[in-house]
Amino acid sequence: MTEPEQPLSRRARREAEAAAARRRRGRSDAETPTAGTPEVPPALVPPVLVPPALAPFADAPMTTEPAPTELLAPPAAEQPPTAATTVVGAADAGASSEATAESAPRGIGAFVRAHPRAVLATALGVGFLLLATGSLFAGIAVGSAQGAPVPVATETPTQEPDPRVLPAAIADPSRLRTCSVAALAGDERLSRLFASVVNVTTGEVLLDRSGSTPVRPAGSMKVLTAAAALAVLGPDFRLSTRVVAGSTPGTVVLVGGGDATLSRLPAGQESVYRGAPKLDDLAAQVVAAYALANPDEPGITSLVVDATYWSAGDAWNPRWNRDRIAAGIQAPATALMIDGDRADPRQQISPRSNDPIGRAAQAFAEALAAAGNPAGVPTISSGAAVGGTVLGQVQSRPVSTLITQMLTNTDYVLAEMLARVTSKQLGLAGSTASLTAAITGALNPYGVATDGMVVTDGSGLATDNAVPMQYLAELFGVINGRTANLGIIMDALPVAGTSGSLAGRFGGPNAVARGAVTAMPGDLPTAQALAGVVRAADGTVLTVGFSAVREGIGTAGRDAIDSLTAAVFTCGDNLSNN
Question: Which of 66, 182, 293, 349 could be cross-linked to 70 through a Cys-Cys bond (beta carbons 3.0 to 4.6 Å apart)?
Fold first, then answer.
């Protein structure tokens, strides 16, 4: 049976055509092999292994494309003529085609003999591919047999805490301020300056010079006394002076309640304490009431004076300078006195005495006689009331008015009265020793810490008072807000170049701050102080606390304080802490 013709590949066809051409030129393939294509002996051609699944197709006509490893040339019709192909004439082309068709090899064996190198390369590639695939699956099998790796627990070392203190949050950038008052703060006239300046709106401390260190506040201590009195007594509280019947016939007892404004001036005349209660009013009440209660013996023959509301022995602070008595600035702080113990009730600065109680007792005895006491001027003695019917009573102006009088006129006596009455109303002794607890306890509700504060009087005359300037600056932030009746203090404070004890200050270059500084000054032989509110040129509201300590600091230090304050006014919120 004749094997059917099989289509030849393009390369086989070309080789067949070339062989036919050589035969026509009298050359045989056996004598002259094609250059570059050596004849492979049949014994060396490897057998073609056909997988069982492909056996039925082994002898089928080959209609597939050439093996992937065979390099294909363009078809003869598309290939440009070369030197090798031009030797064949057009007449030979038809004969070559016929010869090729007759002698073309057929079947897989013929294909292998025609293309031994291609078949060998293909076989080697397939073998290599089979070996690689087998190795891959063998590795997978071995790995699967060994199983998945088992995780091993390891102990995580404990991380040591970072010893550095890290902020809970990154702070906002601070404004770069360029207005410096360093030269004025370092003025030799101030010696050692303690200072704090706070922006009321932001709470930011703009200037700090040992502001947290407790230092003598001088007269600015009165602000703390006023705030404490408002917290404990309230703005409507009034101080009372009364007279009760004594334990023996003809005796009355004058009981002092801490009102230093009681005046001996007659009705229609005003002392420095405008609207103060009158001694002659009290005397008239007593004479009438006693006569009504004792119609048979209406005369008052004995006057007992009770000034034990707090101890009279504690009336003079050993830190005070006694020269101030004759200078008309201060008097012993007794629970009974008249006109602040002034020699002239109409003058703010007027000599005082060493015995305010005695002066008040004498004036009242004379007032009894003037009021019509049948017994005239009674005898005077000291003692304590033991009850008894109230025969008469007068009251001071409300605390709000007393605070205004104290701050506007820098009244040291009123400051001592308010401090000690505050102590008594808190259940304390009203003594010098009680004032730290009384004043700080009263101030605590305002929300400003009073740590480290020492208070031994209400006026600031004592050199052992100690208050941080930062505290004063922060307290003035609360006062400026006018909460809890503190607006009373704000309205009563002196104003630079305008009122009170600041009326004659802030002259010359410092006049720029006139009307813009509302503050309480302090003047001691060893300290100059100023604490209050500055409404700066740029509209910023600042609070300040200044205290300069130096022996003999005098007016030179006061002027230096004014210059510093005026500079703060000019800088406003651009005030630098450098």
Answer: 66
Contact 516, 496 (CB under 8 A): yes
- Greatest pairwise CA separation for the chain in angstroms: 187
Average pLDDT for the chain: 83
Least confident stretch, 36-50, 118-132, 399-413, 461-475? 36-50
CB 119 within 8 A of CB 11: no
| 370 and 440 co-located in one domain | no
> SS3 letters for 341-377?
HCCCCCCCCCCCCCCHHHHHHHHHHHHHHHCCCCCCC
Q: Do the Cβ atoms of 229 and 217 come closer than 8 Å?
A: no
Q: What's the rounded Cα separation, in Å, for the pair 478 and 469?
A: 15
DSSP state of 495: B
Distance between CA atoms of residues 487 and 504, nearest Å: 24
pLDDT at 101 over 50: no
**399 near 237, Cβ under 8 Å?**
yes
Residues 264 and 358 reside in one and the same domain: yes
Question: Are 369 and 454 in a shared domain?
Answer: no
Q: Is the pLDDT of residue 534 over 60?
A: yes
CATH value at residue 269: 3.50.80.20
d(CA 197, CA 186): 16
Task: List the structure tokens of 183.
Answer: 């030269």
Same domain, 390 and 250: yes
Q: State how many domains the chain has.
A: 3
**Please, what is the Cα angle at 97 between 94 and 100, to 5 degrees?**
150
In angstroms, the CA 65 to CA 55 distance is 19
pLDDT of residue 59 exceeding 50, the answer is: no
User: CA torsion sign, 303 to 308 to 313 to 315?
Assistant: negative
Q: Give the helix/strand (H/E) hosting 452.
A: none
Q: Is the pLDDT of residue 152 over 60?
A: no
Q: Domain range holding 262?
A: 238-397
Domain presence at residue 402:
no
Residue 456 has pLDDT above 50, yes or no: yes
Statement to judge: residues 229 and 258 lie in one domain: no
**Is the same domain home to 250 and 390?**
yes
- Displacement of CA 574 from its chain's centroid (Å): 19
**Assigned domain for 511 exists:** yes
Among 24-38, 42-56, 236-250, 563-577, the minimum mean pLDDT is found in 42-56
pLDDT digits (tens, 9 = 90+) for 256-267: 999 999 999 999
Q: What is the pLDDT of residues 108-120, one digit of tens each?
A: 655 556 666 665 6
386 pLDDT higher than 50 = yes
pTM confidence score: 0.71
Cα separation of 241 and 252, whole Å? 13
Which residues are CB-neighbours of 144 under 8 A, at least 6 positions away?
none
125, 151, 185: which is the final residue of a domain? 125
Distance CA 203, CA 250 (A): 64
- Evaluate whether residue 509 is within a structural domain: yes
Question: Which pLDDT score is estimated for 22?
Answer: 72
Instruction: Of 297, 298, 279, 304, give the one whose Cα is nearest residue 372.
Output: 298
Shared-domain flag, residues 358 and 329: yes
Expressed in angstroms, the distance from the first to the final Cα of the chain is: 119
Which residue in 350, 520, 327, 340 sits closest to 418, CA to CA? Answer: 340
- Looking at the structure, tell me whether residues 244 and 196 fall in a common domain: no
Residue 160 included in any domain: no
